[in-house]
């Protein structure tokens, strides 16, 4: 299998030379919160796949929903004056679930496609309102918004921009609200205000008449589970309201219960004009994304009385929509979102905070069911390791050896587990992480 991968496959985000020497891990099956490799090892999936398997693995109801829909109508599209029942039922359900007046869905096949849609829709919206110069989208350094040309441009990953001549024109970046990494020495409240104020400065620098939208993840995921200080989001909201620019919440990771509410916009009291959904919308069982659109934005697109010339073959794929509907039904009827918010997240937060006592850990933070550990070489000074990613990669490999999947973002270790964990599974996860931290500290000579 590893030879087949080397001979026939170019996997995403991989150094092919290095990967072909070691060979990828081969995951063969999964159940509940565990995945199993071909050697029979059981791994506790602390990342819910790639932040998406919210309901956990092995849910036959989702499989049956896909199979039944595929027997009935395996494919049809929403182009050229057609529609079909699962896409319409899901649109209505999403309108009911989403906060505020986000009442219409534009379906896509992924989070990246949502963000391409956002760029097109925001610009079309302003042009339709008679402001064709409002083209600029402001985003943030170290954001992740996907890997298509627009997604990677909105993202703030320099190493991605370096390949392919990105960002695209009229996309600007401000600094992120990453207190541990960039704000120490300052109190988190004023740091949050200062980072939010950069949005106002950028709008004034570019000219209010040039700016279409601001996009952000409520909590940055792939950037390292960056939970902004409490002062940040209210100030961002105030600035977007003051200058009347569209506020886009990229909830691809945060949506569908991750922060203990259905959406992180509710957790942080954000009132977005556009909201991007993917991943947890189907618990990852089939690919699907949706951009939720406010009544005001939708009305302008309707009144424009011209075609919005955008869409994908798989926009509103019937089987994916049927799985999303069943996924939402199960999240609701089994009470997972409330359970995370009221029981599991408070328990995780309490246990997670204890990891901050470990000699290798500079900060342990969590919100709902996402959490991060900052690995430091010197706990007194919070000094980092000399080489970036030095500790993260070591810790990640040790975690795998101990049967727990964590992701390393540089030297930040992160988890985003399935929402269906039991208290016993949380305890097991923490035991395995603690053991892995001890072994990482010995491997790196940290006492
Ligand atoms: N927005 C956000 C906030 C994301 O996290 C996307 C958009 C793009 O979604 P698609 O479905 O096009 O991948 C994402 C995806 C990682 C990792 O290494 C994170 C993502 C994808 C792959 C890897 O943490 N997030």
Question: What Rg do the Cα atoms give?
Answer: 22 Å
Summarize the main sheet.
7 strands, mixed
**Which fold name fills CATH's third level, the topology of the largest domain?**
Aspartate Aminotransferase, domain 2
- Spans of 5+ residues with little confidence (pLDDT < 50)? none
What quaternary form is this?
single chain
Distance N terminus to C terminus?
40 Å
Name of the CATH superfamily of the largest domain: Type I PLP-dependent aspartate aminotransferase-like (Major domain)
Q: In the CATH hierarchy, what is the architecture of the largest domain at level 2? A: 3-Layer(aba) Sandwich
Mean pLDDT comes to: 97
Relative helix content:
40-55%
Description of the structure:
The chain is α/β, with parallel strands linked by helices and 447 residues long. It folds into 2 domains: 2-58 and 335-444, Aspartate Aminotransferase, domain 1 (Alpha-Beta Complex); 62-333, Type I PLP-dependent aspartate aminotransferase-like (Major domain) (Aspartate Aminotransferase, domain 2, 3-Layer(aba) Sandwich), CATH 3.40.640.10. It is 42% helix and 16% strand. The chain contains 17 helices and 15 strands. The protein has helices spanning 2-8, 16-22, 48-51, 60-72, 85-97, 111-128, 149-154, 158-161, 179-182, 188-206, 232-243, 264-267, 295-303, 318-333, 336-354, 390-401, 423-444, and strands spanning 27-31, 34-37, 42-45, 102-108, 136-140, 171-174, 211-216, 246-250, 274-277, 289-294, 361-367, 370-375, 404-405, 407-409, 412-415. β7 (211-216), α11 and β8 (246-250) form a beta-alpha-beta unit. α16 packs across α17 (423-444). The longest helix is centred in the C-terminal third of the chain and has 22 residues, at 423-444. 47% of the residues are buried.
């Amino acid at each position: 299998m590893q030879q087949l991968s080397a001979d026939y496959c170019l996997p995403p985000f991989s150094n092919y030379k290095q990967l072909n020497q070691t060979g990828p891990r081969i995951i063969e099956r999964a159940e509940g919160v565990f995945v199993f490799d071909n050697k029979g090892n059981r791994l506790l999936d602390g990342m819910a796949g790639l932040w998406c398997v919210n309901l956990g693995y092995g849910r036959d109801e989702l499989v049956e929903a896909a199979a039944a829909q595929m027997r009935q109508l395996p494919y049809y599209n929403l182009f050229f004056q057609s529609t079909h029942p699962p896409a319409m039922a899901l649109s209505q359900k999403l309108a009911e679930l989403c906060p505020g007046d986000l009442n219409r869905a534009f379906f896509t096949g992924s989070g990246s496609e949502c963000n391409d849609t956002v760029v097109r829709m925001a610009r079309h919206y302003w042009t339709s309102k008679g402001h064709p110069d409002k083209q600029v989208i402001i985003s943030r350094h170290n954001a992740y918004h996907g890997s298509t040309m627009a997604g990677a441009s909105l993202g703030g990953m320099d190493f991605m921009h370096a390949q392919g001549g990105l960002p695209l024109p009229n996309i600007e970046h401000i600094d992120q609200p990453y207190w541990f990494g960039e704000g120490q020495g300052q109190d988190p409240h004023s740091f949050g205000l200062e980072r939010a104020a950069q949005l106002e400065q950028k709008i004034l620098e570019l000219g209010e008449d040039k700016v279409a939208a601001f996009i952000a993840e409520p909590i940055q995921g792939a950037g390292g589970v960056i939970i902004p200080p409490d002062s940040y989001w209210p100030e961002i909201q105030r600035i977007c309201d003051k200058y009347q620019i569209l506020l886009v919440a990229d909830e691809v990771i945060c949506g569908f219960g991750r922060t203990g509410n259905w959406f992180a916009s509710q957790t942080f009291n954000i009132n977005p004009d556009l909201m991007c959904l993917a991943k947890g919308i189907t618990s990852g069982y089939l690919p699907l994304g949706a951009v939720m659109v406010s009544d005001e934005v939708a009305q302008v697109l309707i009144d424009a009385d011209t075609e919005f010339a955008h869409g994908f073959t798989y926009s509103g794929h019937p089987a994916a929509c049927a799985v999303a509907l069943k996924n939402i039904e199960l999240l609701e009827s089994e009470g997972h979102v409330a359970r995370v918010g009221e029981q599991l997240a408070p328990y995780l937060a309490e246990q997670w905070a204890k990891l901050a006592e470990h000699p290798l850990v500079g900060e342990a933070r969590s919100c709902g069911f996402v959490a991060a550990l900052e690995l430091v070489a010197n706990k007194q000074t919070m000094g980092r390791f000399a080489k970036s990613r030095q500790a993260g990669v070591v810790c990640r490999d040790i975690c795998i050896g101990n049967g727990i999947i964590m992701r390393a973002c540089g030297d930040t270790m992160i988890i985003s587990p399935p929402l269906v964990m039991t208290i016993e599974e949380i305890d097991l996860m923490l035991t395995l992480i603690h053991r892995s931290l001890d072994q990482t500290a010995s491997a790196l000579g940290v006492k």
